[in-house]
Every structure is written in C-alpha cells, then in structure tokens.
User: Which sequence fits this backbone?
C-alpha cells in the first residue's frame, strides 16, 4: 500500500515532467539523463531541508523546492525505483511463504474459510503474482542498480533519523533496532563500493550477483519493517476517526507494536548476518594459530583482500544492533499471548 500511495503521488508529477521536457525539447533518454543530473543538487538540498525542524531551515527555499514539480518528481522517482521492485521481491519471495504458514496455522474453518479475503485465496494469489512479476533475479537486479542512487540514499538517511525520533516516542515498536540495522546496511554498502576481494577484484559490481543481490535482500527486510512501523503510527493517529477500531484502539496499537518489534528484530538479524558475510566473507582467512582457543580473525581490508586490524566501525555498528534487540523477545511473548486468546468461531455470526 505504501508503494501504491507513492505512485499515486508520482503519476501526476510524471505527466508534468513529460510536458515540461517536451516544451524544452528534452525527448531522448540521454537528454533526460542530462536534465536530471542538473536537478540532482536541488533535489538533495530539498531532502536535506526536509529533515530539519521548521525553525532551523530556510523556509522560503524549502517552499520553492517543494513547489518545483521536477525536483519533487526526482525525489519521489528515486524512492519508487527502489520501493517498486523491493515490494515485488518481498511479497513474492517472503510474503507468499508467510502466507502459507498462516494458512497452516489458522486452519480452514470459521473466519479463515468463508469471509472475504480468505487466507487460502490470498496465498494462491501471492503465488500467481510471483509468476506475473517475473523471476526474483529481475527485481534484485533493478534494486542493485537503483539503491546506490544518491537521492535515494539521502532519503534513506532521513528515514534513519525518522526512526530514531519514533524510538523516542514509541520505544515498543522496534524502531531503535531497525534504525541501527539500517545504519549497518548503509555502512556495508559504502564499504563494498570501494572494497576488493582477496584476488583484488572489485566487490560492488553489477555482474557480482553474490555481492549485490544479498544486499538487496537485506534492504527489502529493512524497508518492509520500516513501513510496518509507520503503519502503526497511522493507525494510532487516524484510528479514532474509524468506528470500527476506535473502541479498542489502544489494544490494537499495543498488539501491532509488539508485532512490529518482533519483525524489526527479525529484519535486523537478517540484515546483520548478510552484511557480516559480505564484509568478511570475501577476504582471505587470516588464522595463523589460536592462542588458548581465541581466534585472531576479524579485521579491516587493506585493499588486497587481506585482513589487517579490526573493522572497528562495522563491529561497533553490529554490536549496537545486537544491543538494540533489548525487549523484542518480550514483545514477541506479548503478541503470542494475545494471539492465544483469539477465538475463531466455527459458525459465522454474520449473514
């Protein structure tokens, strides 16, 4: 839904962009790329200003950039180019598997059998979508190309700051561990863009799918978890306006916050594992002996793929991710306890 809403905003801007480019005689792909390169600095400036409190930013400049449809198109397009394939990859690669487990868990009677949106139907639809969307490698390839876009990465850094702020006001959502995992992923991306493997070959390259594709998978975990947390804030803010959820809103928010914290912990764990494999896995083994059972592995690449000293920055970030897991298992226990009290009637109570 988040990606769909983003495209709802992007579509009218794309039409304006096409009209303006046509007026300027910018018609070929190369001409558009050149025009977008000129728009990148103001787009980055807008993203930077958007992250600042209103009292600290240049209001006139911010409003001018906000009113520029080409700048807004470039910012949204950079996000859409990642979120679109990420949504397809996540839904077909992970969502379908989770749907199958949900069907097995819930059984085939009561609300799961006859009501609109029956889980079994959703599961079958998810598998069909995996066919319609094409091989998952196609989605990973697109993400690997677009996730390094500087405008997207500027937005990504803002999302980390946003999650830090959410963690201050909603600590039970898992926003803290997710923000730490996103920082770890960003460090790994920047590291891989300049690092080489043990043979001296460049790591971050379009034809090295063993490097860029796992990094894409890690990003999908993080983006999906972020959106789940944002949905909880949306529920909390707009829930009172809905007669359906207003009465038990506090309970809904608490339950979904626990689910979000559980998912954030899983996402952080997956991303942390993938990043560690990519940072250390392409270097030469450095074990030259073990003193009293201690291992000497763990170091910083010196450009030749050999380990020389500790990768202090990465180790510090990963330790921070681990520490931020505090409370997430308690959240899982609370969510499990709440689910155990849900009763699915055998006979439906609606016509």
Assistant:
């Amino acid at each position: 839904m988040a990606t769909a809403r983003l495209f709802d905003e992007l579509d009218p801007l794309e039409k304006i962009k096409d009209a303006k480019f046509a007026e300027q005689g910018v018609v070929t792909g190369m001409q558009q790329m050149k025009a977008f390169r000129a728009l990148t600095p103001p787009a980055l400036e807008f993203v930077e200003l958007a992250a600042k409190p209103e009292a600290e930013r240049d209001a006139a400049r911010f409003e001018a950039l906000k009113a520029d449809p080409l700048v807004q198109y470039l910012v949204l397009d950079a996000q859409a180019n990642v979120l679109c394939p990420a949504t397809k990859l996540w839904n077909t690669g992970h969502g379908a598997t989770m749907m199958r487990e949900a069907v097995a868990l819930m059984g085939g009677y009561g609300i799961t059998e006859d009501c609109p949106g029956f889980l079994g139907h959703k599961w079958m639809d998810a598998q069909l979508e995996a066919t319609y969307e094409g091989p998952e490698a196609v989605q990973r390839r697109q993400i690997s190309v677009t996730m390094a876009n500087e405008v997207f990465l500027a937005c990504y850094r803002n999302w980390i700051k946003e999650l830090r702020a959410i963690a201050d006001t909603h600590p039970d959502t898992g926003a803290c561990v997710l923000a730490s995992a996103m920082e770890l992923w960003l460090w790994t991306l920047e590291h891989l863009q300049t690092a080489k493997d043990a043979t001296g070959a460049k790591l971050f390259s379009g034809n090295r799918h063993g490097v860029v594709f796992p990094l894409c998978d890690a990003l999908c975990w993080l983006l999906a978890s972020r959106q789940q947390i944002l949905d909880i804030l949306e529920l909390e803010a707009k829930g009172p306006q809905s007669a359906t959820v207003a009465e038990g809103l506090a309970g809904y928010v608490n339950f979904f916050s626990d689910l979000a914290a559980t998912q954030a912990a899983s996402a952080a764990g997956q991303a942390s594992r993938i990043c560690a494999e990519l940072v250390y896995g392409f270097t030469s083994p450095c074990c030259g002996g073990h003193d009293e059972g201690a291992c000497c592995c763990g170091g910083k690449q010196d450009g030749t793929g050999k380990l020389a000293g500790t990768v202090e920055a990465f180790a510090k970030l990963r330790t921070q991710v681990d520490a931020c897991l505090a409370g997430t298992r308690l959240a899982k226990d609370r969510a499990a306890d709440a689910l155990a009290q849900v009763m699915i009637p055998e006979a439906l109570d609606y016509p």
